[in-house]
Amino acid sequence: MNFVPGHIYHVYNQGNNREPIFYSRGDYILFLKKIRKAFSGNTDILAWCLMPNHFHVLIRIKEIYELAYIENDRSKKLNPINKNIGSALSSYTQNLNKKMDRTGSLFRKRTKAKSLSLLRAEDNYGINCYLYIHQNPVRAGLVRKLEDWEFSSFRDYAGLRKGNSCNKKLATELFNLPASPSEFYELSYRTIPESVVKSIH
To answer: Among 137, 170, 182, 201, whose CB has the most other CB atoms within 10 angstroms?
Structure first.
């Protein structure tokens, strides 16, 4: 994955063969901690959602972002965000394998990152991806209301929880989110065109 400063990316991965990656509330919490650490420093998290067999994170790359070199081989560049994501998924897999007495990989081999900044501006992919990530649990039939799913950033933005995983101020500026709770709630349920959904994957 190549990351460009100032760009917004939809980062996601799922369990091998769409198998579960979370088995308890503690698993979700542990994974969120690892993901927060992976994206600290070089990015701002704008939204996130953890689902039973996959995850979504919406990030913006900071302008100060720089590539790190692989040890002493300056002919090769290692993307530090890639390295951090890989380390987070590997560490979480080791924890879960030990807990569940399982072996092997947990996630699909490649985590995907789609630059929304390269898509047509008139289709508002940033805000639509933001809404899509929060709508995931409802779209999947896990809950009836967005606020009923604990493992997403929706509750933080809706003022129902004091979470600090996301840069809410930046997301509000980027996506022109309404200040009014009722207007934000209404916006959060807006229908997203399927053509846009396909483009953000």
So the answer is: 137
Of 128, 133, 144, which is closest to residue 194 (Cα–Cα)? 128
The sign of the torsion formed by the CA atoms of 126, 136, 113, 69 equals positive
Least confident range from 40-49, 67-76, 142-151: namely 67-76
- Cα–Cα distance, 134 to 199 (Å, whole number): 17
Taking residues 25-30, report their average pLDDT: 98
Place of tokens 């091998």: 16
| Residue 47 and residue 29 in contact, taking contact as beta carbons nearer than 8 Å | no
DSSP letter for 193, please. P
Residues ≥6 apart with Cβ < 8 Å to 101: none
Sequential DSSP letters for 141-160: TS-SSGGG-SSBSHHHHTTS
Q: DSSP class of residue 53?
A: T
Confidence of residue 71 (pLDDT cuts 50, 70, 90): low
CB neighbours of 63 closer than 8 A, spacing ≥ 6? 5, 6
* Domain spans of the chain, in order of start: 8-199
Report yes or no: 4 and 60 within 8 Å, Cβ to Cβ: no
Kindly tell me the sign of the dihedral angle through the C-alpha atoms of 63, 176, 191, 158. Answer: positive
Radius of gyration of the chain (CA): 17
pTM above 0.85, yes or no: yes
* Domain 8-199 part of CATH 3.30.70.1290: yes
